[in-house]
Design brief:
alpha/beta; TIM Barrel; six-stranded parallel β-sheet; 9 helices; 39% helix; binds pyridoxal-5'-phosphate; Ala_racemase_N; PyrdxlP_homeostasis; PLP-binding_barrel; pyridoxal phosphate; Pyridoxal phosphate homeostasis protein
Length: 266
């Protein structure tokens, strides 16, 4: 089975009206309901995080009119700019879901409600320091590399437990759970295995976590694979293209290798 990085990229029509956004959101929610029911879970336990990266603000406004109140962005400066330009919308929360360079922690601290890609102690320290200055707190998800691919960011599963324990002393960070990007593959078993690894890690950590720390959340699943993620326990699914339409740029643009200059073009 070969990887098909862009297998899902061309199949989603671009939503251009509030009605189309309402329909897309309704369709995704229905898929969530069906997947939750099949897994014997309540769909109330699965949050939908619409991912609006690359989508211009005019179209984001339509999605908000259609009911979106929570948006995910992969690049922090794009997210900050949008949050400022959409600041007139009172009930809108932002999650930064992509890899973050330590020197950009200050941007996240300024506006984000959640950060889903915490993967180093240096970054945790920078966020804590910046959140102190802003007098804010942040829900964080620890990103775990569940696919073993060199190109993916995130901690090794074996390192995540100790990492979470250390986070207990950061009072500005609320450790909500774990996040992963599954392998990009048409092999559903390989994809699902990534979600299983994250769920088992979460269960282990929660069983042994020090008092007060209960990082139950599982941020996993995207347009092409969120049903399997829900089956494996996802509590937040991050869905972009199925709501907003296909992106022009290949996904490799958003998830370059860990050695590349990721945010140089942000
Ligand atoms: C873009 C992105 C998503 C959403 O992917 P879609 O294919 O648009 O559903 C989810 N998670 C992360 C980290 C992303 O960058």
């Amino acid at each position: 089975m070969t990887d098909q990085p862009d297998a899902v990229s061309s199949t989603y029509a671009t939503a251009e009206t509030t009605a189309q956004f309402a329909e897309n959101i309704r369709d995704v929610r229905t898929r969530i309901d069906v997947a939750a029911q099949r897994a014997g879970r309540s769909s109330a336990d699965v949050r939908l995080l619409p991912v609006s990266k690359t989508v211009p603000e005019e179209r984001i406004r339509l999605a908000v009119e259609a009911g979106a109140t929570f948006l995910g962005e992969n690049k922090v400066q794009e997210a900050l700019r949008k949050s400022e330009n959409l600041a007139d919308i009172v009930e809108l929360d932002w999650a930064v879901i992509g890899h973050l360079q330590t020197n950009k922690a200050k941007y996240v601290a300024r506006f984000a409600a959640e950060f889903h890609a915490l993967d180093s102690m240096r970054l945790a320290e920078a966020l804590q320091r910046r959140l102190d200055i802003e007098d804010r707190t942040l829900e964080v998800y620890v990103q775990v590399n569940t696919s073993g691919e060199q190109s993916k960011f995130g901690l090794e599963p074996a390192d995540a437990e100790g990492f979470v324990r250390e986070l207990a002393s950061f009072d500005r960070l609320n450790v909500a759970g774990f996040m992963t990007l599954a392998v990009f593959s048409s092999d559903e078993e390989r994809v699902r295995r990534c979600f299983t690894v994250l769920r088992e890690l979460r269960d282990r950590v929660c069983a042994e976590a020090p008092g007060g720390l209960q990082p139950h959340g599982l941020s996993m699943g995207m347009s092409g694979d969120f049903e399997a993620a829900i089956d494996e326990g996802a509590t937040t699914v991050r869905v972009g293209q199925a709501i907003f339409g296909s992106r022009a740029l290949p996904d490799s643009y958003y998830w370059p290798t860990g050695t590349g200059d990721l945010e140089g073009s942000a």
